[in-house]
Write a structure and sequence with these properties.
Elements (H helix, E strand, L loop, with lengths): L32 E4 L5 E4 L7 E10 L4 E2 L6 E2 L3 H6 L14 E4 L5 E4 L2 E2 L8 E13 L6 H14 L5 E5 L5 H11 E2 L5 E4 L12 H14 L5 E5 L2 E4 L4 E2 L8 E2 L7 E3 L3 E3 L14 E2 L8 E5 L6 H8 L6 E6 L9 H12 L3 E6 L11 H8 L3 E2 L5 H12 L6 H8 L25 H13 L3 H10 L15 H6 L5 H8 L14 H7 L3 H9 L9 H13 L3 H10 L2
Parallel strand pairs: 3-9, 3-10, 10-12, 12-13, 20-21, 21-22, 22-23
Antiparallel strand pairs: 1-2, 4-5, 6-7, 8-9, 11-19, 13-14, 14-17, 15-16, 17-18
Helix pairs in contact: 2-3, 3-8, 5-6, 8-9, 10-11, 14-15, 14-17, 15-17, 16-17
This protein binds aspartic acid.
Amino acid sequence: MAPPPPPPPPPPTEFYNGFRSNVTTAAPSPTASTFNLNLGISLNVEPVDNLPESRVLIIMTGGTICMQRSENGYVPATGFLDNALRPRPSFNDGSPPKPVPVVMEDGKVEMMDTLRTPPSKYSRRVRFVGLEFNPLLDSSSINAKGWVKIAKTIERNYQLFDSFVILHGTDSLAYTSSALSFMINNLGKPVILTGSQAPMSELHNDATDNLLGSLIIAGHYMIPEVCLFFNHKLFRGNRATKTNAHDFAAFSSPNHPALAKVGISTTVNWGFVRRPSRISPFSVQTDFETSHVACLRVFPGILPQMVRGVLQLPGLRGLILETFGAGNAPEDAELTDALRDGIERGIVVVNVTQCQVGTVSPLYASATALARAGVVFGLDMTTEAALTKLSCLLANPTLSAPEIRKLMSRSMRGELTEQSEIHFSHPNAELPPALSSLSALGYAIQDQNLDDIRIIIKESNQFLLNQFDYSGNTPLHIAAISPGLGILREFLSQGASVHLRNRDGRTPLFLAADAGKLENVRLLKESGAHLHAEESEMATMLKKRAAAAGEEVKRTCWDLAGA
Ligand code: ASP
């Protein structure tokens, strides 16, 4: 006799709980098996197909992952979805290609065919669609224009997808992931960049694992950061750097732990995942370029005239100085003077280390001399993060050079470790049952007891706000329909996700509008909430119903919510 099937694995924390597919099991399909149990009853056993789905937009920019051999070596090839993914069962469960809307560059909406993965270990499918850039590029040719194009594609489609996967060459991948992390404000959904060292067209490749791993994470976990996924690891995008040109393990994150690891199961390091902490909607900074910045690597014997020459480049506004060890450069008065002159003319000079691991600091007199000349400590930032962050800040016309200097030593997107930053983690401690904390939180919300709420959240060693209680709601769902704005505001400013859907597939915004909570709807919208594509039909119907019934407040709620 066959052994009993193993129990289903527990869902991961911060799992997308509620996205449900529209597919229902209506009439039996011709493929349904018919069992005659010899009892005079005939049972049609239809494969149950109401598993939840996540919707992911894949943005293809080029890179080895989609390349094919040519006379001149590997070149990017179009038609990746059709040629590489459609024939592979792990990316295509053979279901109909249910078209979904995608907003194109000209603003027009096109219905595009999708592919769908088979169910994951957590009984969820990922439905995805691919948008190919024209031309596809080797990433060594991608620059700020390409970063803006990616960011704008995400912006146009932000409300239509649960998450975004960007396929990109590995050469400049860490620059792009860093740049996007600074260009995107108040990100509430996962954005995952990946690529590969060997193309999917080769028999032995890392492309399949990298893309599948990215889709699984994007489709299952609420990690609202710009990330880079490679060789089974998810890194914060602005902490990663390419450290190997040959191995599948091409990237590392030398100064920050990986955010997740994918193996037989996926382990997310939730303690390090950043979440929005301001009540502001998602937005993108698109006036961004690198033509005002330069990067200079200090070496033994570097001539002060070289440094002066770079600092006198017309239009230069920022310089990343890659120094020795803990931030040191040759103790040469002429060199320090060259830097001081540039800084006095308003150029922002940032000190980062040539070493992969560690931070720059005033440990040695040499580094202190640079700091006295006005060079900013970039702490443990990678060059990629420092250069793109500086470009992003310089593009903001409201910031002065002294303000930019200050910000270069402060963490904006988790790109550096501020010296006073302390991380508490409880790797071995027994976790209190999350559900009991969630129920306590539920009661405290009901009692409108903000003090208790703060204590419960603080004392839990898990991030409770993105977890689902026994009824399938997050604390934000409950707060969205509760009176008073204090609790809702507290949750939003502590990073609760506005995009998680409850067991019925509803967002907190939908619930607030349905409950006629006008102020709650307004606050949720301010925090970047929007109705999910699968809610819009129902929302429109409810809006019409409210209008017909003369329920003015409710109708306004639906209007505001975007129905
Ligand atoms: N030259 C390729 C690129 O960056 C390398 C790769 O994708 O791995 O596009």
